[in-house]
Automatic annotation (TrEMBL):
Gene: aroE
Protein name (Swiss-Prot/TrEMBL): Shikimate dehydrogenase (NADP(+))
Domain Shikimate dehydrogenase substrate binding N-terminal: 9-91
Similarity-based family: Belongs to the shikimate dehydrogenase family.
Lineage: Bacteria, Pseudomonadati, Pseudomonadota, Gammaproteobacteria, Methylococcales
CDD domains associated with the record: NAD_bind_Shikimate_DH (cd01065)
Molecular functions (GO terms): NADP binding; shikimate 3-dehydrogenase (NADP+) activity
Keyword Oxidoreductase: yes
Binding site for NADP(+): E80, G130, A131, G132, G133, A134, N154, R155, T156, V157, A158, K159, L218, G242
Length: 276
């Protein structure tokens, strides 16, 4: 009998990861015979854990916090979007045994915004809050949608300025500190800071969001995050968290591994229904 193809997510902490659930739902839906597990892997044992996993016949890995940069270093080949984002969330073993690294976070976000929520990025004024790894992972796919403006605001302005340089070949980005936000307005505001996980918000002025604009928190939680609540208070047309992005980035990884695109909407609906 043929062995079942093995996949896993590595991270720390990993206990609450929804990835095993999502990939098992995809496998059920598509009839693909795979096994997907979660493993707690600290950064200092990452390389060893990757070696063991693939030596034992593993086919593909997802890597989450704090391992995405290590996975980027580890990959022997990179997709263009992974190269630019300096982070890898998906490793796939190629036929010659080498490891391909991809970053499906940005495309997952764009798909959730445009396809699932009908939000147009083309010609939109877009603001990203935060200039860390999460922000780096989404900039390329956002620029590809040709927004009229992309501003990155960060507590440490130099980090936002660095991103404008790193992505200069793809499109124009501007950078500022939070103190430069009053008086400006955006159609889409994305929270890519890690602040909302600790229920905090960067300082945001009134009228930052255009009428009927969209707020999107890359983080997700069972309850509305601080940023999602802020969006609701601004009467946003949509105020969303990152659950849809999580499912969409998983679908891209599944496609890379199996060559089949799962239906994401029923999976998002199911996970949403289980939240409360
Ligand atoms: P991640 O991989 O989740 O992006 P990171 O690379 O550590 O994590 O980046 C965290 C981001 O959240 C940074 O932009 C950080 O701002 P600084 O670059 O100034 O550190 C931002 N951040 C974290 N806590 C914040 C807070 N309380 N207010 C505003 N920004 C915050």
């Amino acid at each position: 009998m043929k062995n079942i193809d093995q996949y896993a997510v590595f991270g720390q902490p990993i206990k609450h990861s929804k990835s095993p659930r999502i990939h098992r739902l995809f496998a059920e839906q598509t009839g693909e015979n795979i096994e997907y597990t979660a493993r707690e892997v600290p950064a200092d044992t990452f390389d060893e854990a990757v070696d063991q996993f693939f030596a034992a016949g593993g086919k593909g890995l997802n890597c989450t916090v704090p391992l995405k940069e290590l996975a980027w270093r580890r990959a022997e080949r990179l997709t263009e979007r992974a190269r630019l984002s300096k982070a890898v969330n998906t490793l796939a073993q190629q036929e010659d045994g080498s490891l391909l690294g991809d970053n499906t976070d940005g495309i997952g976000l764009v798909t959730d915004l445009t396809r699932n929520h009908g939000i147009t990025l083309t010609d939109a004024r877009v603001l990203i809050l935060g200039a860390g790894g999460a922000s780096r992972g989404i900039i390329g796919p956002i620029l590809e949608c040709k927004p009229s403006r992309l501003l990155i605001a960060n507590r440490t302005v130099a980090k936002a300025e660095q991103l404008t340089e790193d992505f200069a070949d793809i499109g124009k980005i501007s950078a500022c500190g939070f103190d430069h936000l009053p008086g400006q307005q955006f159609d889409l505001i994305l929270n890519a800071t890690s602040a909302s996980l600790s229920n905090q918000l960067p300082p945001l002025p009134e009228r930052l969001l255009a009428e009927n604009g969209c707020c999107y928190d890359l983080a997700y939680a069972n309850e509305a995050t601080a940023f999602v609540r802020w969006g609701q208070l601004q009467n946003a047309g949509h105020s969303l968290d990152g659950l849809g992005m999580l499912v969409e980035q998983a679908a891209e990884a599944f496609y890379l591994w199996r060559g089949i695109r799962p239906e994401t909407r029923p999976v998002i609906a199911l996970l949403n229904a289980e939240r409360h």
